[in-house]
Structure formats: structure tokens, C-alpha cells
Amino acid sequence: MKILGYFFASLFSVGTASADVYQWYDGDGDGSTWLSNTVVEPYANLSQQTLWWADLPFANLHHANLILANLSFANLFSANLSAANASYADLHDANLENTDLAYTNFVGANLGSSNIGNANLFYADLSDANLLQMENWESAFWLAARYNENTIFPDGMDPYEYGMIELAIPSPATGVLFTSICFTRRRRR
Q1: CA distance to 20, 43, 95, 135, 175, per residue, from 150 (Å)
Q2: Rg, C-alpha atoms of the chain
Q3: Cα–Cα distances in angstroms (integers) from residue 146 to residues 23, 122, 132, 153, in the given order
Q4: Would you say 34 and 55 are in contact if contact means Cβ atoms under 8 Å apart?
Q5: Which of 94, 107, 127, 143 satisfies CB 3.0 to 4.6 Å to 87 for a cystine?
């Protein structure tokens, strides 16, 4: 009986996706929809990769390295990108609907014209990010998402109204003053 239990459990177990990455549309016009042989899994390193029009619905990419990745027009519907580092990534016109983006680093990222409907952006860092013309931003969860004065918001969006946190950009003089106070030796008389 125990063996039968293990057999049925193995039938229903889910492994990580390890297939090639394909485009949902031949956006680059080269006649092929193949993009990369990168393994799509948690902690994946996709930094600086060109993955435009990538078809990655329901992908599990939590803690992934997406620094400077080009995911323009990508389909990331219901994907898990929580705690990923997508700083300076290009996600314009991407489908991020129902996507988990909690704790994700989007510093300097381009999310312009992307569909963010029902996405979870809890405590995401959007400092210096471009959110212009973002679609369905009204239905996203923005609580505690962080931004700074350089973040470009969609027309009509008030970050305070959505419970977002503004981060101050430290001035260079503050750093110099702090350093001089901490590392200056006191003279004894």
C-alpha cells in the first residue's frame, strides 16, 4: 500500500521548468521563436539577456537575477517574480497581469505601457522606475511599494493614495558629513 502511495504521489509532483524559452510572437522577425536555453526556475540568472516576446506564463522566477534583462512584450501572466532583482530591466509592454512582484527590485526599470492588472507589488522598490502609460494599475496591490522623486507614475496615479512609501534621495553633503563625524579622531589635550 505504501508503494502505491509513492507511485501516485510521483504522478502528481511538479518539477521546475527546464525547457527552452520561446517567444509568443516572432517579434524579431528572424523566422524562429526560440530565444534561449536558459533554465526558468527560482534563482535563475537572466541578467542582460534579450528575452523580448518571451512566453513565460505561470513561470516561477522568484529571487531571479533580471538585471538589465530585456523582457519587452513578454507574457509573464500569473508568474512569480517575488524578490527578483529587475533593476534597469526593460519590461515595457509586458503582460504582468496577476503576477507576484512582492519585494522585487525595479530600480531604474522601464515598466511603461505594461499591463499590471491585479499584480502584487507589496514592498517592491520602484525608485527611478518608468511606470508611464501602465495599464490597469488601479487594480494592482501597491501597499508599501517604495518610490522616489524620480519615479515616473501613470497619469492620475497618486502614490500616497495607494499606501506607497516615498524614499528620500540622500544628498552628497549628508554622506560627507556623516563620514567626517564617524571617522574624525578626537584630539586630547
Answers
A1: 37, 29, 24, 20, 20
A2: 21
A3: 32, 9, 16, 12
A4: no
A5: 107
* Cα-based angle 57, 88, 158 (whole degrees, multiple of 5): 80
Find the angle CA(151)-CA(155)-CA(158) to the nearest 5 degrees. 65
Cβ pair 110, 129 in contact under 8 A: yes
pLDDT in tens, 74-92: 999 999 999 999 999 999 9
**Separate counts of helices (H) and strands (E) for the chain:** 2, 4
Half-sphere exposure (Cβ direction) of 33: Cα atoms closer than 13 Å = 10
Residue 180 CB burial class (10 angstroms; 0-12, 13-18, ≥19):
exposed
Torsion of CA 140, 144, 146, 151, to 10 degrees: 40
Predicted structure pTM score: 0.77
Domain ranges of the chain: 1-189
Determine how β-strand 165-166 pairs with β-strand 146-147: parallel
Q: How far apart are the C-alpha atoms of 80 and 105, rounded to whole Å? A: 14
Domain 1-189 CATH assignment equals 2.160.20.80: yes
Confidence of residue 4 (pLDDT cuts 50, 70, 90): very low
Q: Indicate the length of the chain as a whole number.
A: 189
Q: How far is CA 149 from the centre of its chain?
A: 20
